[in-house]
Amino acid sequence: MKNIRVIAEGPIGRITLARPDKKNALDRAMADELAEALFALSESPPVRVVAIDGEGPDFCAGADLVALDKMLDAPRQAQLDDAQALGHVFHTIRRMEKPVVALVRGRAYAGGAGLATACDIVLAHEEARFSYPEITIGFVPAMVMTLLRRSVGEKHAFDLVSTGRVMKAEEARSIGLVSRVFPGAEFHASAEAVLNQLADAPLSAMAATKTLFYKLDTLSFIDAISAGIVANADARATPAFREGVKRFTNRNKEGK
Protein backbone atom coordinates (compact mmCIF):
# COMPACT_ATOMS: atom_id res chain seq x y z
CA MET A 1 0.00 0.00 0.00
CA LYS A 2 1.37 3.39 -1.01
CA ASN A 3 -0.68 5.78 1.10
CA ILE A 4 -0.94 3.99 4.43
CA ARG A 5 1.11 1.60 6.56
CA VAL A 6 -0.51 -1.38 8.24
CA ILE A 7 1.08 -3.30 11.11
CA ALA A 8 -0.40 -5.95 13.38
CA GLU A 9 1.40 -6.05 16.72
CA GLY A 10 -0.20 -8.88 18.61
CA PRO A 11 -3.72 -7.82 19.53
CA ILE A 12 -3.28 -4.25 18.24
CA GLY A 13 -3.67 -3.48 14.54
CA ARG A 14 -2.19 -0.14 13.49
CA ILE A 15 -3.04 1.93 10.42
CA THR A 16 -0.89 4.98 9.77
CA LEU A 17 -1.88 7.58 7.19
CA ALA A 18 1.41 7.99 5.32
CA ARG A 19 1.28 11.08 3.11
CA PRO A 20 3.03 13.56 5.43
CA ASP A 21 4.05 15.77 2.49
CA LYS A 22 0.31 16.24 1.84
CA LYS A 23 -0.56 16.48 5.56
CA ASN A 24 -2.05 12.99 5.09
CA ALA A 25 -4.81 14.40 2.87
CA LEU A 26 -7.42 11.87 1.77
CA ASP A 27 -7.81 10.93 -1.86
CA ARG A 28 -9.54 8.02 -3.58
CA ALA A 29 -6.47 5.77 -3.39
CA MET A 30 -6.02 6.35 0.33
CA ALA A 31 -9.71 5.77 1.01
CA ASP A 32 -9.63 2.48 -0.89
CA GLU A 33 -6.53 1.38 1.00
CA LEU A 34 -8.09 2.34 4.33
CA ALA A 35 -11.19 0.26 3.64
CA GLU A 36 -9.05 -2.70 2.57
CA ALA A 37 -6.85 -2.46 5.66
CA LEU A 38 -9.79 -2.12 8.04
CA PHE A 39 -11.46 -5.17 6.55
CA ALA A 40 -8.24 -7.21 6.74
CA LEU A 41 -7.70 -6.30 10.40
CA SER A 42 -11.34 -6.99 11.22
CA GLU A 43 -10.87 -10.51 9.82
CA SER A 44 -7.54 -11.15 11.57
CA PRO A 45 -8.16 -13.36 14.64
CA PRO A 46 -5.19 -12.08 16.70
CA VAL A 47 -6.23 -8.42 16.32
CA ARG A 48 -8.63 -7.13 18.97
CA VAL A 49 -8.42 -3.34 18.51
CA VAL A 50 -7.42 -1.07 15.62
CA ALA A 51 -5.63 2.26 15.98
CA ILE A 52 -5.49 4.93 13.25
CA ASP A 53 -2.88 7.69 13.38
CA GLY A 54 -1.01 9.96 10.98
CA GLU A 55 2.65 10.19 10.03
CA GLY A 56 4.24 13.56 10.69
CA PRO A 57 2.85 16.45 12.70
CA ASP A 58 -0.78 16.17 11.53
CA PHE A 59 -3.43 13.47 11.72
CA CYS A 60 -5.15 14.42 8.45
CA ALA A 61 -5.80 17.82 6.90
CA GLY A 62 -8.87 16.67 4.96
CA ALA A 63 -9.59 15.86 1.35
CA ASP A 64 -6.83 16.19 -1.24
CA LEU A 65 -7.96 19.39 -2.98
CA VAL A 66 -5.49 18.86 -5.83
CA ALA A 67 -7.19 15.54 -6.58
CA LEU A 68 -10.61 17.18 -6.34
CA ASP A 69 -9.48 19.96 -8.69
CA LYS A 70 -8.63 17.34 -11.31
CA MET A 71 -12.16 15.95 -11.00
CA LEU A 72 -14.04 19.23 -11.38
CA ASP A 73 -15.26 18.35 -14.87
CA ALA A 74 -15.72 14.63 -14.28
CA PRO A 75 -19.20 13.16 -14.84
CA ARG A 76 -21.63 12.85 -11.94
CA GLN A 77 -21.19 9.08 -11.63
CA ALA A 78 -17.45 9.54 -11.20
CA GLN A 79 -18.13 12.10 -8.45
CA LEU A 80 -20.49 9.68 -6.72
CA ASP A 81 -17.98 6.84 -6.94
CA ASP A 82 -15.23 9.04 -5.49
CA ALA A 83 -17.41 10.13 -2.56
CA GLN A 84 -18.53 6.54 -2.00
CA ALA A 85 -14.93 5.48 -1.36
CA LEU A 86 -14.76 7.53 1.84
CA GLY A 87 -18.32 6.58 2.75
CA HIS A 88 -17.23 2.93 2.53
CA VAL A 89 -14.50 3.63 5.10
CA PHE A 90 -17.07 5.09 7.51
CA HIS A 91 -19.40 2.11 6.95
CA THR A 92 -16.57 -0.35 7.55
CA ILE A 93 -15.56 1.24 10.85
CA ARG A 94 -19.16 1.18 12.05
CA ARG A 95 -19.77 -2.43 11.00
CA MET A 96 -16.56 -3.83 12.47
CA GLU A 97 -16.99 -5.72 15.73
CA LYS A 98 -13.58 -4.57 16.95
CA PRO A 99 -13.13 -1.06 18.39
CA VAL A 100 -11.37 1.48 16.18
CA VAL A 101 -9.44 4.27 17.94
CA ALA A 102 -8.23 7.53 16.39
CA LEU A 103 -4.94 8.83 17.80
CA VAL A 104 -4.98 12.50 16.87
CA ARG A 105 -1.97 14.78 16.91
CA GLY A 106 -1.85 18.09 15.09
CA ARG A 107 -4.64 18.94 12.66
CA ALA A 108 -7.72 16.85 12.00
CA TYR A 109 -9.61 18.97 9.48
CA ALA A 110 -12.55 18.32 7.13
CA GLY A 111 -12.43 14.68 6.00
CA GLY A 112 -9.67 14.10 8.56
CA ALA A 113 -11.97 15.29 11.32
CA GLY A 114 -14.64 13.08 9.77
CA LEU A 115 -12.35 10.06 9.87
CA ALA A 116 -11.61 10.70 13.54
CA THR A 117 -15.31 11.20 14.27
CA ALA A 118 -16.11 7.89 12.56
CA CYS A 119 -13.89 6.02 15.01
CA ASP A 120 -15.35 4.56 18.19
CA ILE A 121 -12.92 6.40 20.46
CA VAL A 122 -10.87 9.55 19.81
CA LEU A 123 -7.71 10.11 21.85
CA ALA A 124 -6.26 13.58 21.32
CA HIS A 125 -2.88 15.16 21.99
CA GLU A 126 -3.35 18.38 23.94
CA GLU A 127 -2.17 20.39 20.91
CA ALA A 128 -4.55 18.68 18.47
CA ARG A 129 -6.97 20.84 16.51
CA PHE A 130 -10.30 19.94 14.91
CA SER A 131 -12.27 21.72 12.18
CA TYR A 132 -14.96 21.11 9.57
CA PRO A 133 -14.14 23.98 7.16
CA GLU A 134 -15.76 22.64 3.97
CA ILE A 135 -18.28 25.48 3.79
CA THR A 136 -15.47 28.04 3.47
CA ILE A 137 -14.64 26.70 -0.01
CA GLY A 138 -18.24 26.18 -1.09
CA PHE A 139 -18.23 22.49 -0.17
CA VAL A 140 -20.49 20.52 2.18
CA PRO A 141 -19.32 18.21 5.03
CA ALA A 142 -22.04 15.88 3.83
CA MET A 143 -21.17 12.43 5.17
CA VAL A 144 -19.39 13.86 8.20
CA MET A 145 -22.57 15.54 9.47
CA THR A 146 -24.22 12.16 10.02
CA LEU A 147 -21.41 11.25 12.40
CA LEU A 148 -21.00 14.68 13.97
CA ARG A 149 -24.66 15.13 14.96
CA ARG A 150 -24.59 11.79 16.76
CA SER A 151 -21.44 12.77 18.64
CA VAL A 152 -22.11 16.34 19.75
CA GLY A 153 -25.80 17.11 19.13
CA GLU A 154 -27.48 19.52 16.73
CA LYS A 155 -26.45 22.90 18.12
CA HIS A 156 -22.73 22.16 18.45
CA ALA A 157 -22.69 20.30 15.13
CA PHE A 158 -24.34 23.10 13.14
CA ASP A 159 -22.07 25.69 14.72
CA LEU A 160 -19.03 23.71 13.58
CA VAL A 161 -20.15 22.95 10.02
CA SER A 162 -21.63 26.40 9.35
CA THR A 163 -18.59 28.38 10.54
CA GLY A 164 -15.69 26.02 9.92
CA ARG A 165 -14.04 27.31 13.07
CA VAL A 166 -11.08 25.53 14.63
CA MET A 167 -11.46 23.83 18.01
CA LYS A 168 -8.74 23.06 20.48
CA ALA A 169 -8.60 19.53 21.82
CA GLU A 170 -10.08 20.38 25.21
CA GLU A 171 -13.12 22.09 23.69
CA ALA A 172 -13.60 19.09 21.40
CA ARG A 173 -13.57 16.87 24.47
CA SER A 174 -16.00 19.10 26.35
CA ILE A 175 -18.67 18.78 23.62
CA GLY A 176 -18.23 15.05 23.12
CA LEU A 177 -16.21 14.92 19.91
CA VAL A 178 -13.08 13.66 21.68
CA SER A 179 -13.04 10.87 24.24
CA ARG A 180 -9.91 11.88 26.14
CA VAL A 181 -7.14 14.50 25.91
CA PHE A 182 -3.60 13.66 27.04
CA PRO A 183 -0.64 15.98 27.72
CA GLY A 184 1.97 15.89 24.98
CA ALA A 185 4.66 14.18 27.03
CA GLU A 186 2.21 11.47 28.09
CA PHE A 187 0.28 11.04 24.85
CA HIS A 188 1.99 7.92 23.52
CA ALA A 189 2.06 6.04 26.82
CA SER A 190 -1.51 7.02 27.73
CA ALA A 191 -2.86 6.06 24.30
CA GLU A 192 -1.06 2.71 24.48
CA ALA A 193 -2.62 2.06 27.88
CA VAL A 194 -6.10 2.61 26.42
CA LEU A 195 -5.38 0.36 23.44
CA ASN A 196 -4.10 -2.39 25.73
CA GLN A 197 -7.15 -2.09 27.98
CA LEU A 198 -9.43 -2.50 24.96
CA ALA A 199 -7.35 -5.42 23.69
CA ASP A 200 -7.64 -7.16 27.07
CA ALA A 201 -11.44 -7.15 26.99
CA PRO A 202 -13.11 -10.47 26.12
CA LEU A 203 -13.56 -10.56 22.34
CA SER A 204 -17.13 -11.86 22.47
CA ALA A 205 -18.21 -9.17 24.94
CA MET A 206 -16.55 -6.38 22.94
CA ALA A 207 -18.14 -7.55 19.69
CA ALA A 208 -21.61 -7.78 21.24
CA THR A 209 -21.21 -4.38 22.93
CA LYS A 210 -20.17 -2.55 19.76
CA THR A 211 -22.80 -4.26 17.61
CA LEU A 212 -25.65 -3.41 19.98
CA PHE A 213 -24.29 0.08 20.67
CA TYR A 214 -24.70 1.18 17.05
CA LYS A 215 -27.80 -0.90 16.40
CA LEU A 216 -29.56 1.32 18.96
CA ASP A 217 -29.44 4.19 16.43
CA THR A 218 -32.14 2.47 14.40
CA LEU A 219 -34.44 1.37 17.24
CA SER A 220 -37.19 2.91 19.31
CA PHE A 221 -36.77 2.93 23.09
CA ILE A 222 -38.94 -0.17 23.57
CA ASP A 223 -37.22 -2.05 20.73
CA ALA A 224 -33.80 -1.06 22.08
CA ILE A 225 -34.62 -2.47 25.52
CA SER A 226 -35.89 -5.65 23.84
CA ALA A 227 -32.67 -5.95 21.83
CA GLY A 228 -30.76 -5.45 25.07
CA ILE A 229 -32.66 -8.31 26.72
CA VAL A 230 -31.60 -10.65 23.91
CA ALA A 231 -27.98 -9.47 24.02
CA ASN A 232 -27.93 -9.86 27.81
CA ALA A 233 -29.17 -13.44 27.61
CA ASP A 234 -26.79 -14.32 24.77
CA ALA A 235 -23.82 -12.93 26.69
CA ARG A 236 -24.59 -15.18 29.64
CA ALA A 237 -23.91 -18.22 27.46
CA THR A 238 -20.40 -17.18 26.44
CA PRO A 239 -17.28 -18.75 27.97
CA ALA A 240 -15.88 -15.28 28.68
CA PHE A 241 -18.88 -14.39 30.87
CA ARG A 242 -18.84 -17.71 32.69
CA GLU A 243 -15.13 -17.37 33.44
CA GLY A 244 -15.55 -13.73 34.49
CA VAL A 245 -18.32 -14.55 36.95
CA LYS A 246 -16.30 -17.39 38.44
CA ARG A 247 -13.23 -15.17 38.87
CA PHE A 248 -15.36 -12.56 40.63
CA THR A 249 -17.09 -15.02 42.96
CA ASN A 250 -13.81 -16.78 43.76
CA ARG A 251 -12.18 -13.45 44.70
CA ASN A 252 -15.11 -12.68 47.00
CA LYS A 253 -14.76 -16.08 48.67
CA GLU A 254 -11.09 -15.41 49.21
CA GLY A 255 -11.86 -11.97 50.65
CA LYS A 256 -9.96 -10.08 47.96
Q: What distinguishing features does this structure have?
A:
256 residues; alpha/beta; 2-enoyl-CoA Hydratase, Chain A, domain 1; 2 domains; 6-stranded mixed β-sheet; 3-stranded mixed β-sheet; 9 strands; 52% helix; 16% strand; globular
Tell me what you see in this structure:
It is a single chain. The chain has 256 residues and is an alpha/beta fold. The chain folds into 2 domains: 197 residues, 2-enoyl-CoA Hydratase, Chain A, domain 1, CATH 3.90.226.10; 51 residues. It is built from 11 helices and 9 strands. It has a 6-stranded mixed sheet with strand order 1-2-3-4-6-9, with helices on both faces. The chain has a 3-stranded mixed sheet with strand order 5-7-8. Strand 1 and strand 2 form a beta hairpin. Helix 1 packs parallel to helix 3, helix 4 packs across helix 5 and helix 5 packs antiparallel against helix 6. The longest helix has 20 residues. The radius of gyration is 20 Å and the shape is globular. It starts with a strand and ends with a helix. The mean pLDDT is 94.
Task: Please provide a brief summary of the model.
The protein is of the alpha/beta class.
- Give a quick account of the main beta sheet: strands, pairing sense, barrel closure: 6 strands, mixed
* Low-pLDDT ranges: none
Q: Radius of gyration, Cα only, in angstroms?
A: 20 Å
Query: How much helix, percentage-wise, in residues?
Result: 40-55%
Strand tally is: 9
- Which fold name fills CATH's third level, the topology of the largest domain? 2-enoyl-CoA Hydratase, Chain A, domain 1
Class derived from helix and strand content: alpha/beta
The run of helices and strands is: EEHEHHEEHEEHHEHEHHHH
User: Strand order of the main beta sheet, please?
Assistant: 1-2-3-4-6-9
Per DSSP, what share of the residues sits in E-state strands of 2 or more residues? 15-25%
Determine the mean pLDDT: 94
- Tell me the name of the CATH class of the largest domain: Alpha Beta
